[in-house]
Amino acid sequence: MTDHTNADTLRTPIVAVLGHVDHGKTSLLDTIRGSAVSEGEAGAITQHIGATDIPLDTISGMAGDLIDPTDFDLPGLLFIDTPGHHSFSTLRARGGALADIAVLVVDVNDGFQPQTEEAIDILRRTGTPFVVAANKVDTTPGWNPQDGQPIQRSLAAQSERAESMLNENLYEIIGQLSDAGFSADLYWRVQDFQKNIGVVPLSALTGEGVPDLLTVLMGLSQRFMKEEMAIDVQGPGEGTVLEVKDERGFGATIDTVVYDGVVRNGDQIVVGGQDDPIVTEIRALLQPRPLEEIRTEKKFEKVAEVGAAAGVKIAAPDLDRAMAGAPVRVVRDRPLEEVIAEVEAELAEIEVDTAEDGVVVKADTLGSLEAMANALREAEVPILRAEVGDIAPRDIAVAETANQDEHKAILGFNVDLLANAESELESADVKLFTNDVIYQLIEDYETYVEEKQRAQQETVLDKVVRPARFRILPDHTFRQNDPAVVGVEVIAGTVQNNRNVGVFEGNEFDRVGQLSGIQKQGDDVDEARAGERVSIAIDGPTVGRDIEEGDTLWTEVPEKHAKILEQELKEEITADEREALAAYLETKRKRDPFWGK
Fold first, then answer.
1. Does the annotation list 96 as a binding residue?
2. Which range is the signal sequence, renumbered to this chain (predicted)?
């Protein structure tokens, strides 16, 4: 901030609208825009790139007697409205969220959904103040719509039954906010908006409650953000990239929200890039023509300069490696190195800790990359590489270099798989997970890892020698040798065919031979479980000389197998196998305390 305090003025607060995918974010914005247009003369509301600016007098016209415009010295509200960015709540500015304030849209019948939870998580982490718009009140059975009216006036026109049904849904949402750690109430009951979240019941369809939402947003901004809204009007502009887009005739451009200072055509700027900061010069500043619907951006107007807060499209050379969510800084009369260092410092805050081995992460903006990295750190999933952008062939190549099979995975948040990467993915040993809800993405990956580990354990278990202790029954010698055939009872564990068996002489294990057959009631079987009586054939010993009736025999467990059983597969084997293993290890370790460790 420079010292021309006299040049300081209050900028428009930036409002983000977020919420679950079909809870009505876009229709709410359209309603606010539409009523703003019908309220004022056409020029009252200005469209920016990715944003709509609604001036204070238009807001007070819509809010009627809810607002006294003389109470406010903020110029209005700037709504960010890039519909593709339901993750744009993760766009950053100087280490915080880009938005000064947020509206969390919740369908009053549907309550919290995965993306609602995620939005709440981001609001909590960035400390962004927010209000809850409880949308779709008009779907309450028996609702009597009062188009465009403040919500309390509308409630007065409802039957008791409709009102109590609505209240039930509203209290459900207040409860869900409370579970998420926020104390909330209907906005007209909130005394202190710093301690409580205001819930505004409304309908994007009928416009009921929209005046209230604007009133609460203005009040909150005025009360809590006045200091933050003070900017140096003429200072070098600062902003955040919303999106990188190719425009015919301009090449790669960046849709940018400017939140401080002024940006002029011809300015030298530094923009956060995928490799190094990009230093370039503005060739054109583009705004949509007045009241062109923002999403049909066919026609732009060139403007000479843009002051905060505003959305603008910047055309300049070399922007193709710019990143959504990255900082934009005007250099003006400062040393270029200093500005590059500033941009690098801001990008460094988002540096993701990467490991020697781990998964590849791709996300649509820097902020969502940061949110992904935080969530993966909590889930203790290491990251090999993390980048902004769609999934490209080189991501698949990198994922294939992971050492552990379960890390040969790409987690993509809100990104596409590029066409040229599709065929590579088919032939590569890499698993792709994509989702537009962060914790769902991580949950899917964790489930996959668990299943993979379970399958691996099952294969290991098939190959591992299982422990067993069994006793030769008296009067059950069917053949003395070549092979010896005796009747046995399995005391603990699982006797498997083709295993070496032996006896303990003191603490010494003495191998006597190898099982070459197991018969149960005359049928050949591969194994016998604890409690079963079977006859076995043993190659090697002679009954009466090497083994005796009444002897206890053990399956010989190789040291490596004993270690795997004790350390990795203990939960996978049965209680009696654990018992046999424990007794076997105990005897072995009397001679060598470190055996099998």
1. no
2. none
Q: 21 labelled as ligand-binding?
A: yes
pLDDT digits (tens, 9 = 90+) for 572-588: 899 999 999 999 999 99
Contact criterion met (CB below 8 Å) for 292 and 286: no
Q: What is the pLDDT of residues 466-489, one digit of tens each?
A: 999 999 999 999 999 999 999 999
Query: Does residue 362 have a known ligand-binding role?
Result: no
Is 82 marked within a binding site? Answer: yes
DSSP H or E segment with residue 262: strand 262-264
**Residue pair 72/56 in contact by the 8 Å Cβ criterion:** yes
Residue 255 among known ligand-binding residues: no
Secondary structure of residue 123 in the 3-state scheme: helix
In the predicted model, is pLDDT for residue 408 greater than 90?
yes
Q: Please name the residues in contact with 340: beta carbons below 8 A apart, sequence gap of 6 or more.
A: 270, 277, 279
Mean local confidence (pLDDT), 105-123: 92
Cα–Cα distance for residue pair 161/163, rounded to 1 Å = 5
Structural tokens at position 564: 């795997």
127 near 96, Cβ under 8 Å? yes
**Contact predicate 121/18, CB 8 Å:** no
Nearest-10 Cα torsion for 564, 568, 574, 579: 60
